[in-house]
Design brief:
By secondary structure, this protein is an alpha/beta fold. The protein has a single domain, classed as Alkaline Phosphatase, subunit A (3-Layer(aba) Sandwich). Helix content is 29%, strand content 11%. It is built from ten helices and 13 strands. The chain has a seven-stranded mixed sheet with strand order 7-10-3-11-12-6-13, sandwiched between helices. Strands 1-2 form a two-stranded antiparallel ribbon.
Length: 460
Amino acid sequence: MSLPIPPRSLRDLPTTRRAFLRGAGVSLALPWLESLPLRAADTGKRVSQAATSKPPVRFACVYFSNGVEPIHWWAKPGGADAAMQIGPCLQPMAPFREDMIFLRGLFNEQADAHKSPHLGRIPNLLSGAWVSTDQNDIHVGRTMDQIMAQQIGDRTPVPSLILGIEPTELRLEDGLSMLYGSCISWASERKPAMKEIYPARVFDLLIGNGKERRLDRSILDQVRVDAKDLQQRIGASDRRKMDEYLESIRDVEKRIERAKRDGRLEGWQPGLTTPDMARPGDPLPQNVPEHMKLMLDLIVLAFRMDKTRIVTCMLNNDLSQMNFGFLEGVRGSLHLDLTHNGRDPVREAMYLKTNQFHVQQFAYLVGRLKAIDEGGQSLLDNSLLLFCSNLLDGDRHQADQMPMLLAGRGGGSLKTGRILDCLELGNSNRRACSLYLSLMDRMGVALPRFGDSDQRLAGI
């Protein structure tokens, strides 16, 4: 019996990065080959090989809860040869005004129409979907970060990072699950992409270690046994649960496989191959600023090492009980109380300090990425960073606008240092999902429609 003749060289392989070696009845997938031309799945057109040597574009969404004081959240043109003027809330971003776009007026229609002033307006932040009001039926929509993770996440060892500072809560609030208030990334309509709040575990996920891999394999062996047993006893009503259970098996399998093939042959190479920060300690940090800084440093590490290109990070949960007593002049109130201040001057002033602190965290991430060179461009130039909240005026639960900043140049495709006033676009095209379509385009994920929009955002 004659065996299939394998390709003589990579030159003989199909001209697509997702190539296979076939022989003796076995088909083996090669690693993602940056040096081979990319063939767009939707058009079949080849992308020039020169483009594959460029650094990839990365995306991160940094979320803060409960909105802002609108009188402090503003930007105005700076006039000829002058940078834009920014309000008190945005002052930590002053050094980076030329690296950002101030977005005014974007909103999610389903969130604005929802009766729940908080939990109906946060889980759909990145999807624009309707939020179920049935406490027995968790239902939102898959978010844009997870759509990107599904389509391009196999290019990196970790498809996406989902990070947070406060734990995921399961209690009820106003008759709805606080799962809604704890998660902005949703892997499916009913399943949040659960966030990681322990810096040490994030580090291990990015860097990996033998103990973790052995544990993965142990889990994989066990769930296979359990799945086989369940299949013999399951009823029709439990098929969806069984599907989710089997999906967990596939997730572990994929994680092991990605860890084994983390490497490249040619083309663009990440500038960092070993971590430049120490592994954080195992315990959960009790100091909030330290905790946030560690998580932001881990985002930078992940981008530099090309461990992932997609990140979401919640600086706090919606209806947050975080105590900001570590800030000078902020005493006696939790974050939720400060945001719902009834225009009390004292608490309003403390609210501004918490807003500035959140902006300061984003500015720290922007500054770190801007300082990293990637062959004549900064890592920030090759990134798209979205900073946002689900409400504008937290005290009034105002959802007809959302505070948003966009930093980075998306690989040179985006002009920054400007204001994009979406209120001037009219209601037909000031949808946040129009922005998401535009951002996904730059990440290599082109969709005809997403959420409540079928058009890109003008000016992006």
